Fold this protein.
Amino acid sequence: MSQTDSAPVLVTGATGRIGRLVIDQLLDAGVPVRALTRRLEAAAVLPPQVEVVTGDLTAPDSLEPALNGAGVVFLLWTAPPATAAEVVARLAARARRVVLLSSPHRTPHPFFQQPNPMAALHADLERLIAATGLESTVVRPGMFASNCLPWWAPAIRAGDVVRWPYAAAATAPVDDRDIAAVVARTLHQDGHVGGDYVLTGPESLTHAEQVAVIGDALGRRLAFDEMTPDEFRTLSQGAPSAAVEMLLAAWHAAVGQPAHVTTTVSDLLGTAPRTFRQWAADHASAFAKDS
């Protein structure tokens, strides 16, 4: 798709953290945007120039108004898998190309090779899309830097100790803004059909090192107190057990070796990816002590 194409880009997951940033990037590039939302009131956070259409991935028939006249679709799957095949079939019939936000499940680093229900869903979506012959691009972010907000911000706001498993587990956190910039680039520029892009941050950091970086951004010394996997399971009661076990297995597999690091962000954008230190400085207020 060229920037002169007047067909709107359809963004699913439009009010989520990545979808919202993708919309901003597209608007900055002068690209018309159509946002899919299940509830109109949720779209109040979107800029006024965005065309908002209601629809639900769990009800494929409801997607017809959103797909009518759309050129390229950003597919961020946020629903149970039961309707995936029918949704993909509708995309293939109505859209010209799809950009899928997936995961690095094909990357041979042990961190990405543990049993993972979400990765299995992503692999199924990729197979369904490939089987239709629909032009596609796959974007595969690794660990999101913003995961630190729900994981550690409550403890850091309350004190100076983070209790978490696997202090020595190394990842390469990637900034949400870099993910969104790559997604937007692949949506509105030609040359990305067949692209398969694994995105990471620029450096390998252990959990303990990441907590220390956040402490530096706050001007505070933070301690890392390593909990056991069973303690983490207790802490995570209420969360899906498959997700908890996936995280524990991935972190265990990541201990003792550097994280997988790619240059894809800089290769595609021509600028260096944001470091975790930059991310922490930009989000320091979210970790500031409760008054």
Remarks:
- The chain has a mean pLDDT of 95.
